## 1
Amino acid sequence: MRYLRQHATCWRMLIEQCHKAISFLSTGYPASACYSSCRIKLVHNGEMRVAEPKTVRQSVSLPVKVASQVRTMAKARRLSATRMLVELIENGIEAEKRKQQEFFDLAERFRNESNPDAAKRLGDQLGRMVFGG
């Protein structure tokens, strides 16, 4: 509650200073004269913190070939190997979600298909998605 009172007091003072500056400018004096008589100083007191995304330290063992590929890709894009791994994992997660959605869409089309030939073709596609081939 104390923080809110301090914050409100700062805003009130800032608004008062702005009103003074506006009324001074409306008298016809040049704007440069206003700057000498009206100064606003905002001070950060450390109570307003920016929320940072939380990270988890995770140890992963990679095959030598994969690790060298990651380092090469990171160098080419001027990223750290860690950042490159994060991007690759995020892209892989998105690809997996897309693949899952395609499967559900195909299964829905298979269930709703009334033509036996089309149903067989869709069933074959489902089988390839599940079992590969």
## 2
Amino acid sequence: MQAASALPSIAPRADEDALMSSDIPLDDASRRELERLDEILARGLSATELGQYPRGLELAEQAVAHADRIDHSGRRAKALLNKGAVLAKLKRFNESAASLREAARLADASRDDHTRVRALAKLVRVVGYRLAKPDEAEAIAADASAAMARLKHAPLVAAELYNALGTLAKKREDYKQAAQHHAHALTLLTDELGENHTRVAASMNNLGNVMKLAGLRDESVDLFRRARASFERTLGPSHPYVAIAMSNLGNLLLADPQARFFGPNPRSYVEQCRTAEDLVRRAIAIRGSLPGAERRIGRAVHTLGEALRCGGDYGKALEQFERALVIKTIVYEKRPHADLVSTLNGIARCQIGLRDPAAARNTLKRAIAISASTKITHVDRGETLLTLAAAEYGFRTRDSRPKLARQHAIAARGAFLSAGPAYASHVREVDRWLREHPPTASLGGHE
């Protein structure tokens, strides 16, 4: 990317205290007002880091109002930066983008490139990833890189920009480039802060996600474990970031190449499923105490269902998938959403495990209807098709339709291939299913 190549070389240390805006008042009364404002800013940052996002937003808005009252554009830029960051945490992305744009503008007017780069880096993530406007985000990244070149010695700020560029590359599905950006950010942060720091742990989590998508599972597992340990040491065991790291690790343990799409799994994998189940239950317990976490709870309950299903407990798994579907349906206000498809697929796979292909076909009809009205991932499409193949093939009954089932399976294979290298094991599972389910057996059996 041009934006990435424009970044300057970073010196090993940074004097970020020297990067303050130049419009600091000189009289004692104004200095006291400024100290009060800095205290509000610090409290707001602390609240946000502790996962107290509504409180963080309240304090950020207080800081903006205080900066307006004392007419200090430099500090107003910092307050708007904080406000934009916490709005993104609250999923209010359009408001976040507006706040970050204004922060960057004011920082530029105050000649505060430190704040300008940070605001633009966050804006790259919001616009490019959350609002799905990667071309616009590329232009913002180029502006950030130009401001970064003027700083010269600011590794922490550079790391924030590299992480943003990594997120943008991930959105474009350029996982190699994304991994390079996130790895560079992690190196800068670790050199500057050591491993026991929340920013370092978050960077590990970012790199772990990209490694997973690139098909580098072992590296991803190691990064998620390190991120979880670092978050627990620095934030305590009940912070939402710990829950995120646990969920990521649990999901990855379930995405093992030895896992079978249907039927009994190897004992070693079942043990991994039990570990994943424990991680996800702990993540759900953390998130259950947080306001506004319903969407993440719904996804975590889905993952719990998957852990139970992979372990062979189809009845309990079905209960969790149905619970996840209720939560997600409420979250999305009964509107069609791709997130519902994955859970419906899970329900149908449990019904296959319970030897009820007719129920699975009915469940999948709903998944297919949602897929027709909203964009879904290649993986969800592949899982719907392969599960439908199993339902159509049946269990040596007269309603088995082996030829149609194999057509669905072949289409599923194409979907998994389109999903990228991280899903090579899914392609192998389809190939195995096709070998085990010939097209000529009118009463063929699914095991």
## 3
Amino acid sequence: MSAFEFVFSLFGLLLGFSLVEVLQGLVRTLKLRGTVRVGWLTPLLGLFVLVDLTSFWNIAWAARDDIPANFATLLLGLAVTGLYYFSASMVFPDKPEEWPDFDEWAARHKKQVMGGILGSNLIATAAVLAPRPETWTLGVFAQNGVLLGMMAVGAIASSLAARIYSLKVLARNIEDADHNTTRMLVFSREEARTEANTGRCMTAFLFRVKSVPAALYKALGGFATNGVNIVKLESYLSGAHFEQAQFYAEVEGHPAQRGLQLALEELGFFSEEFKPLGTFPAHPFRRKGWEAPTRGGT
């Protein structure tokens, strides 16, 4: 029996158990398909662990002639395979029925999985590759760099997202302007009507102008002549042709008001498509936000 066979007669079993952990978790998940949302994060995490396990086995086989059969080797092997087993056992939840969204599980346990894989890679790199410089490859260092990068990913999100996904908040209130606000658009299948007498209203709609000169100028002329204020206008190209632009707009007023009625009629005359999205009460924060000061230097 060679030294490699002696060492991996034990640790080969642990690596095999690691593979079983990932595959068994995948099978449990497939059995619950339709009752839980699997998403992509958890399966990709499992695939990453499987690929890294295979990569480690390949590196160990390439260095088989230089692996001594001694106590230090057994300790290092125990550390590497133990970390692999730890990472593999954290990929899928033991009770998937208790996690209706697997993306949440992956977000909470990604650091443990990646930390275990990174630790095993660093130990294997130091123990197997350091004495044999000819085995050093860019791929080995890139792999560890990817692991470090995945563990150190930052994101701009709300404090609620940090609480949900157990994330560490590095900085708060990083916006350049004090009045910076994220707006959420809520759509419903059934129309939620807003009466014209509810106060100051906003109306949102989509439209696509005709492919003729000055189409946008003519389409928006009715808002100026009827005294309707346009507070938001965004354009984007739709379809495969770069000829006609589609616009998202928000204006002050209610469609029941005469001025906005006339403006929309003129808009429809110069537009190829018009789609109202709805009318909603204007929040007082709109005016407050416009009057908020901006930080110096921005």
